[in-house]
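Please go through the protein record below and explain what the tokens say about the fold. Record follows.
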Amino acid sequence: MRNLSIIVLIAFLFSLFPVSAVAAISDPVSINVTPDTVNLHPGEQEQLKATVEFSDGSVRDVTYDAMYGVTSRSVASIDKGKITAKSPGNMQILVRAYGKSTKISVEVTEEQSKPAEPVDLTVTPDTLNLKPGENARVEAILSFSDDTTKDVTRNAVWAVSNSGVASVSNGTVTAKSAGLTDILIRSYGKTARIKVEVTEPTPPEPKELILNTKSVTLTPGETQTVNAVIEFSDGSE
């Protein structure tokens, strides 16, 4: 009677779990993690993907179920496959699931600052009005993307469109003769332009005639010299 009960129980179990289903159970073969090497800067994150391959060819995503271990907590941390870089250094992460394990390498490096790029070239003054023989100093300032500036007056390339009107050397403009000219300034790939006008000086106008005496009294045959001086608008005589 007891043997009969056992046989009935076995038959019942096989009715629930056919032999084909039992045989279909497969074993884990390997665990794969992508990417297998990670390079980050402090503060950056990287999400891993972990999968387990089974003997029947099936693959299961175990990213959130796997166990993760780090060799250096000061370099990076990991939570459910997401790596967060902390400080420069090298470490490994051990990933384990279904009795299979693998390691990935993590390198954290300081981010190299990008060199500032030239943004604008400013020249002051941007217009000049001179007389022949006069000099004027022009300043060229280059601004960069990091909000810094650099005086490039002596290093910039200066070019005059009409060398008969004026010349320029390291930011010093010298007027030559009446006329108009442009000066082109170039530095770090940026350009600026100033206008120069050279005019002849206006001759002074006579302002007043000054005599050294206001009246002269003479007798017949006498002579007297009277000095006359003209005063001009510029103060000259």
